[in-house]
Amino acid sequence: MNLTLDFEWIEAVMLAAVRITAFIVIAPPFSYNAFPLRIKGMLGIGLAFAVAPRVTDGYVSPDTAGFITALVLEIVVGAALGFLVMVVFSAVQSAGNLIDMFGGFQMAQAFDPQSMVNGAQFTRLFQMTALALLFASGGYQLIIGGLARSFTALPLGGGLDLAVTAQALVGATTQMFLAAVQIAGPLAVVLFLADAGLGLLTRVAPALNAFALGFPLKILITLTLGGLILAALPGIVSSLTGQSVAALMGVK
After folding, report:
1. b/e map 100-114, b = 16+ CB within 10 Å
2. Contact in structure between 91 and 179 (CB atoms under 8 Å)
């Protein structure tokens, strides 16, 4: 029995698997360290088979040096696309960090080796909630769909346009800071006004020692309004998912 192998098809699928695996290792929600690396590799290979009809159409097998160059380029492309998605979703973590800082929870800062997040309670809570919402709402499917469509804009072995990639990265970073301020801004303003009110009260009646009530009051405000922000996270994660897919489509 003769078994014929289509080496061009195998090479194209391998290159696609390299890009997808590099993306999965960096981009949320798949970057969470609770997922073993072998599972990420298996998922990358499985998704490469799913996009095989798209990536194998018109693929021409290069020589050995060209294949190694294409392999390195696919690692770079996958890592760059994953980093873009990670930057967009860092808005949730940054918002939690702002709430911890203004609410006085920053003193309980700790490092979470699973999510690779260094922050206090709200930072880790928002990060874990965002990851759970991505799976529960099916947002991860939109991200995978955006990655699959990237093979049309960025063919195998074609590399990246550094100018366009840098512009997309700057835009994603700007959106990340803006979204973080929009999420945590109202609570930060309320906490600032609480501090200002306590300061004025201390100036008017120094004997009351109003600042002794500062920490309990700020904790109460943070827990109350932080719960409202947590309830709004599904809509926020949905919006960030759309922004991440747009960022993937903007890189050419």
Report:
1. bbbbbbbeeeeeeee
2. yes
165 pLDDT band, cuts 50/70/90, is: confident
Question: Hey, how many other C-beta atoms are within 10 angstroms of the C-beta on 47?
Answer: 20
As for how many domains the chain has, the answer is 1
Q: Can you name the residues that pair with 112 across neighbouring β-strands?
A: 117
What domain range is 118 assigned to? 7-250
Give per-residue pLDDT as tens, 226-236: 778 888 888 88
| Extended beta strands in 85-182, E state | 110-112, 117-119
* b/e map 203-222, b = 16+ CB within 10 Å: eeeeeeebeeebeebbeebb
Q: Is 156 left (phi over 0), alpha (psi -120 to 50) or beta?
A: beta
Question: Cβ(180)–Cβ(91) under 8 Å?
Answer: yes
Exposed e or buried b per residue across 63-79, where buried means at least 16 C-beta atoms within 10 angstroms of its C-beta: eeeeeeebbebbbebbb
User: Per mean pLDDT, which of 14-23, 194-203, 209-218 is the most reliable?
Assistant: 14-23
Residue 187 belongs to some domain of the structure: yes
Record the pTM: 0.81
